[in-house]
Amino acid sequence: MRHEMHLTIETVCFALTEGRLQVLLVKRTGEPFSGAWALPGGQIQLDEPFDAAAQRILSESAGVWGVYLEQLYTFGDPGRDPRGRSVSVTYYALMPAMSVGSGMRTARPGPGWSAAEWHPVDQLPGPLAFDHGRIVSYARWRLSQKISYSPLAFHLLPENFTMSDLRGVYEAIVGEEYDPSNFTRQMLARWDLAPVPGTRDRRSRRPARLYRYIGPREIPGSPDSLDEIEMETEPALDPASSESETRD
Amino acid sequence: MRHEMHLTIETVCFALTEGRLQVLLVKRTGEPFSGAWALPGGQIQLDEPFDAAAQRILSESAGVWGVYLEQLYTFGDPGRDPRGRSVSVTYYALMPAMSVGSGMRTARPGPGWSAAEWHPVDQLPGPLAFDHGRIVSYARWRLSQKISYSPLAFHLLPENFTMSDLRGVYEAIVGEEYDPSNFTRQMLARWDLAPVPGTRDRRSRRPARLYRYIGPREIPGSPDSLDEIEMETEPALDPASSESETRD
DNA sequence: GGTAATAATAGTCATTAGTACCATGTACCG
DNA sequence: CGGTACATGGTACTAATGACTATTATTACC
Questions:
Q1: Higher-confidence residue: A233 or A75?
Q2: Domains held by chain A: number
């Protein structure tokens, strides 16, 4: 079986531009789905952890690196790749808004792809290759769920940000509008936010205060950051008696 | 590379007995970790969906079937198996309390295992094989998180149950005690619960009312139950192409 | 400069949700 | 038959939320 099964990594990379959630896509050059947009993806190397592979693939195929990564789901339905059984461990990635258009993290296609571009997630350029549309849908849904109990939003913002910035992230992801005053109150209550002295001139009217998130960067308990939670185990007594004994 | 990578499925199967959360373990007979307890697991067949594989493996290795399944995480760190690169797509399973000890779903070891038993999750019989201890920890943590926003608890109960039963599930999983009165009020507000006429004689004092959960069995949006969420796409213009072979 | 426009921030208040706790009902057990 | 245990009902207090108004600091424009 293992000879015929392909294992790949695909990453849904998100960033916020102009108040809209964007996803990073690359254009395929080979069959099948030649010419279609797809998620940056590729094969895992033999001695490479998943996260490292995802980072590498993202940088090789789209010129983007240094993102925050979290495993999303593993898709393995027979038939999702017309060539044969294919298993994709998928990740989603978040990167700060400013990094997108500004120089070093501009998307550009790597070898094997003819283009790499950011696209608004609610306005994709046609159906994606394979089941990648479904993967994007699910990533987006997960994002919208998880942002309420995990400090994901701060990975989409630069180190210092205003409450408007933060509100923009929530509004883009959740798709609802929030009252600025109530929103600020809730954020200050929920997260560890430290005020930063200066103000960033957003050429708006009244200058907005700057904040910095100083809490944990991810929710404790995730397997990426699992510190082998304390677990009481009995000393392994009796490795001998090995009969089928049903407990309870 | 694909020749050297193993892909397996492991399942953390939970059930509640005597108010404690139990996990289903099997005892290994082969190296490595011969004689150690491990999660029921095995290889995926070439044309088999993950869920089907998990159900099959659970029934083959531990004699248990018909459980509720949800994908947990995919573990693929190099070094997690001393024999070489191994990737495990893990699931967690939930089954009603009554099924455990009662006949048809008694745990019993399949070929290749010397034992199959339920063990209290906070009192495991020594360190588990491979990184399975870590997997159990994570499954348990996920369960404790997800029970608050997903109707997981009802998969651990028979069709009809009392509020005490339900409260027992929450207390075993979350590890806190709840005020019976407040708990009932919250459950009735959060979930779709229909009262069932009779009462089950739990030989307690005052007979408790029976309820049945009539809402959706899993949270909508999960990829297992994804109905290809609506997504506006522009028509795919420019299907120009070239060569090269990139997989996904 | 004066003033309108705009968005940030502050504050108010009614409603809702959450928590602690007491009261009563209905069994079982001496 | 009274005591105990647990299910259920209810009440009062507190915290969180949401809708709304007010104030403030800046820019744009005249």
A1: A75
A2: 2
Return the closest-CA partner of residue B37 out of B120, B156, B155. B120
Residues 6+ apart with CB under 8 A from A118: A15, A17, A22, A23, A24, A25, A100, A107
Between CA A217 and C1' C7 the distance (Å) reads 30
In a domain, B230, yes or no: no
Q: Which residue is nearest to nucleotide C27 (CA to C1')?
A: B205
Q: What is the mean pLDDT of residues B16-37?
A: 95
Q: What is the pLDDT of residues B121-149, one digit of tens each?
A: 999 999 999 999 999 999 999 999 999 99
Q: Are residues B42 and B2 in the same domain?
A: yes
B52: in domain: yes
Nucleotide C4 C1' to residue A14 CA (A): 40
For residues B231 and A137, is the Cβ–Cβ distance under 8 A? yes
Tokens of B186: 């919250």
Name which of B5, B71, B240 is nearest A7 (Cβ-Cβ): B5
Check which CATH number belongs to the domain holding A2 and give it. Answer: 3.90.79.10
Q: Are residues A127 and A35 located together in one domain of the fold?
A: yes
Cα A216 from Cα B120, distance rounded (Å): 31
pLDDT digit string, tens, across residues A130-157: 999 999 999 999 999 999 999 999 999 9
Structure confidence at residue B104 as a pLDDT band (50, 70, 90): very low
> CA–C1' span, A212 to C10, in Å?
21
A3·B4 Cβ contact <8 A: no
Are residues A49 and B78, on separate chains, in Cβ contact within 8 Å?
Answer: yes
**B2 vs A83, which has greater pLDDT?**
A83
Interchain pair A42, B78: CB under 8 A: no
Residue B191 lies in a domain: yes
The CA-based angle B150-B154-B158, given to 5 degrees, is 170
